[in-house]
Amino acid sequence: MRGFTRNVQGKKLFIDHDIHSIQQFISEIVKKRYDRVDINISQENLFHTKMLLKDFRLDNYLFRNHVKKAEPAGTAES
What we know:
The chain is mainly beta. The protein has one helix at residues 28-33; strands at 4-6, 12-14, 34-41, 46-53. Helix content is 8%, strand content 28%. It is elongated.
């Protein structure tokens, strides 16, 4: 959001309060699932939060394949 945005009714919403971290706007339920690190440059109004899932299940990220079928690196035929 740069300066202001609008809600679904079209009303302008301004950022008129201090922001110290994007994490201020993330729900506690989501925060519990991730390891988080802030990378902020407040002088430039740049706020980033890197997030890494704590409980990563590879099967949720493979398409048309399963972890059991995946070959270790370097064993696939070319």
